[in-house]
Amino acid sequence: MTKLFQGTGVAITTPFKDGAVDYETFEQHIEFLISNQIQSLFVNGTTGEGSTLTKDEQIKLVETAVRIADKRVPVYAGSGTNDTAASIQHSLNVKKAGADGIMLITPYYNKTNQRGLIAHFNAIADAVELPVILYNVPSRTNVTIEPETVKILSDNPYIVALKDATGDMQYLEAVKSLVPEHFGLYSGNDDSFIEFLNHGGDGVISVVANAIPKEFQEIYTAYQSNPDDAGDLFAEVSPLIEALSVDINPMPIKALITYLGFADGSLRLPLVPLTPHETKAIIHVYEQIKDGIL
After folding, report:
1. Global model pTM greater than 0.90
2. Among the options 135, 158, 186, 220, which is catalytic?
3. Which among 76, 95, 158, 163 is annotated as catalytic?
């Protein structure tokens, strides 16, 4: 078994127009990403405002991504919730829509223990029979998939990867020491991309790649032959990653891709647009990077 992808996947944003999903602009954004070396698409995740999309919107976004990608890159869909039965049903619908795999967040609010996580993820994986990426983001869910739990889950033939948004390299090392070689390990944090690769990671599921997909994939490509060169490339784009930390994701990236023409600036409540001052600062850094000033 091979890794799901190598390098940079993108947690793609969802554009809106007059309150509805703007599928035409979504298609244009996908074409931009694929033509600029993105290695996979992740739809309906945190950055895609999946929690405020209707199930029908989520399915249509998957169908659209699958159609436009046309097998040039794989399409993965966030389909997990804190309700196992609902997650199974939604994941089956995502499968029918053509997704290559699903990403499952840890249950939130009602939460559970490690035994519950094992039962939850195995139940979904066994019912859906698609590649599963576990999504460990304790800063949002207040639940961590312990390394030993990842090891147990990796015995399931459908559970094949982890998106690790902890930013904890000791956690990554512990997981890597326990899972089989084919199990994919992807960073959920742009700012630790190089460090994640240094500790044996396989790539990143990126937010900033919505705007600079080629630059981020080139970092990974350079790393394979010369980590120092990759570090230099990463240093060039780091100011933009830092600028995007001004507020809660996906508010800052939505402001930037609006400037690029892939959104109209709107988000769904409770998320709200950045202030004009914050938006201007992000665009200024982006333009400096593109002009080679930074």
Report:
1. yes
2. 135
3. 163
